[in-house]
Amino acid sequence: SLSLLSIDLSITCVGRMVMMELNDTTVIMNLKKRFDQELIYTYIGSILISVNPYKLMNMYGTDIVLLYEGRGLHIFAIANLSYSTMMDAKKDQCIVISGESGSGKTEATKLILRYLTAIHHKRNVTQQILEATPLLESFGNAKTVRNDNSSRFGKYTQIYLEE
Ligand SMILES: Nc1ncnc2c1ncn2[C@@H]1O[C@H](COP(=O)(O)OP(=O)(O)OP(=O)(O)O)[C@@H](O)[C@H]1O
């Protein structure tokens, strides 16, 4: 299952490989090839595609946050791009996370919040949002055939960051 994180839309290449033929089959085949090598993140243009690994990946620790600093094929790169663009351009940013049930939207949201917590000096606000998540989930989540912890509601999170 796939989840899409979008900054804007343009489709040119996947990873470092320029694809001569771009269609659903070649894109899916390339995602599968990368997934088999445990590469769960892939860019298509500026859209980051994430394939749910359904297992703990050793790629989300604080050391990794610092290592990525927003670069590379990682959910943290999207978070950092939004953060640094907001700080530099002084413009609000929006991250759209979409995908079918069980594709990893909620987990991606938590990772983005965790990243912001790690890099922004006013940490407590983001930490509070993270801590509110289990409470919201206890009211609005349910087990479904697709996902043991399925959000049965849409979620819009707005974070105000002070300089
Ligand atoms: N990056 C990840 N690494 C490891 N496991 C993950 C990751 N993303 C998701 N999962 C696993 O997949 C499960 C479903 O993910 P999640 O709840 O985020 O899906 P969702 O897209 O929000 O689904 P729904 O729309 O039903 O709420 C998680 O409980 C977790 O076990």
SSE string, helices as H and strands as E: EHEEHHEHHEE
**Overall geometry:** globular
- Biggest sheet features: 4 strands, antiparallel
Secondary structure tally, helices: 5
Instruction: Provide mean pLDDT, rounded.
Output: 79
Q: Output the CATH class name.
A: Alpha Beta
Number of strands: 6
Strand order, largest beta sheet? 2-3-1-4
Binding site for ATP: 99-106
Protein name: Myosin motor domain-containing protein
GO molecular function, one term: ATP binding
Family: Belongs to the TRAFAC class myosin-kinesin ATPase superfamily. Myosin family.
What topology emerges from the helices and strands here?
Layout: E1 2-6, H1 24-36, E2 41-44, E3 47-51, H2 62-68, H3 75-89, E4 96-99, H4 105-119, H5 123-140, E5 141-142, E6 150-151
Antiparallel strand pairs: 1-3, 1-4, 2-3, 5-6
Helix pairs in contact: 3-4, 4-5
The protein binds adenosine-5'-triphosphate.
InterPro entries: Kinesin_motor_dom_sf, Myosin_head_motor_dom-like, P-loop_NTPase, Unconventional_Myosin_ATPase
Binding site for ATP: 99-106
Organism: Periophthalmus magnuspinnatus
